[in-house]
């Protein structure tokens, strides 16, 4: 495990970016956030991409980013977007090339944390976000489990405790 790249997977607002930064810091590895990588390579924000090009175009960019984010044998820590697992090709890459840590959340936790980080999630900018969270999570749960090498239930944990569990497991 020590010599493989680490990807954090899980639903929106599960803390992938915050935990990823802290984990990378502890392990003294470079940190990359896949959504930020997409934003800087396209010069557009995620909501702009969804709004002007649509979700399918975003998924294509996300698929390309997942392979191009890896340069040489750099052992990065990567925070993925919550929907990365929706594409079979991505699940395949994640299983073959990454150690995947699944930050598992209950829908209520996502609801509570949603606005805390100031990130706009186009898929949850709907009339009934509670229902959108519940149905997207139900649809994706099996895929997160499929790629996960290790799972942390993050609902009642602060970031340092999540990072500690991951480091102990590694
Ligand atoms: C998405 C999650 C977002 C971002 C985009 C789509 C999803 O990332 O990639 O809005 O489909 O779950 P976060 O999980 O970092 O919010």
TrEMBL record:
It is found in: Cytoplasm. ATP binds at residues 13-18, 121. Pathway: Metabolic intermediate biosynthesis; chorismate biosynthesis; chorismate from D-erythrose 4-phosphate and phosphoenolpyruvate: step 5/7. CDD domains: SK. Mg(2+) binds at residue 17. Its cofactor is Mg(2+). Pfam families: SKI. It comes from the Bacteria. PROSITE patterns: SHIKIMATE_KINASE. Substrate binds at residues 35, 59, 82, 140. Its EC number is 2.7.1.71. Binds 1 Mg(2+) ion per subunit. Keywords: Amino-acid biosynthesis, Aromatic amino acid biosynthesis, ATP-binding, Cytoplasm, Kinase, Magnesium, Metal-binding, Nucleotide-binding, Transferase. It catalyses: shikimate + ATP = 3-phosphoshikimate + ADP + H(+). Belongs to the shikimate kinase family. Catalyzes the specific phosphorylation of the 3-hydroxyl group of shikimic acid using ATP as a cosubstrate. Monomer. PANTHER family: SHIKIMATE KINASE, SHIKIMATE KINASE 1, CHLOROPLASTIC. This is Shikimate kinase. It comes from Alicyclobacillus fastidiosus. The gene is aroK.
């Amino acid at each position: 495990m020590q010599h493989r790249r680490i990807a954090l997977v899980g639903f929106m607002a599960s803390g992938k970016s915050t935990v990823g930064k802290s984990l990378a810091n502890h392990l003294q590895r470079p940190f990359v956030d896949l959504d930020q990588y997409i934003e800087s390579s396209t010069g557009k924000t995620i909501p702009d991409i969804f709004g002007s090009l649509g979700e399918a175009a975003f998924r294509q960019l996300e698929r390309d980013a997942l392979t191009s984010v890896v340069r040489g044998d750099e052992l990065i820590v990567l925070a993925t977007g919550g929907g990365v697992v929706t594409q079979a090709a991505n699940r395949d890459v994640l299983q073959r090339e990454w150690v995947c840590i699944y930050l598992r959340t209950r829908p209520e936790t996502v609801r509570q944390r949603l606005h805390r980080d100031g990130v706009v999630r186009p898929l949850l900018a709907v009339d009934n976000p509670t229902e959108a969270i519940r149905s997207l999570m139900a649809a994706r749960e099996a895929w997160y489990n499929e790629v996960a090498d290790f799972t942390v239930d993050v609902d009642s944990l602060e970031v340092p405790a999540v990072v500690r569990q991951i480091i102990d497991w590694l």
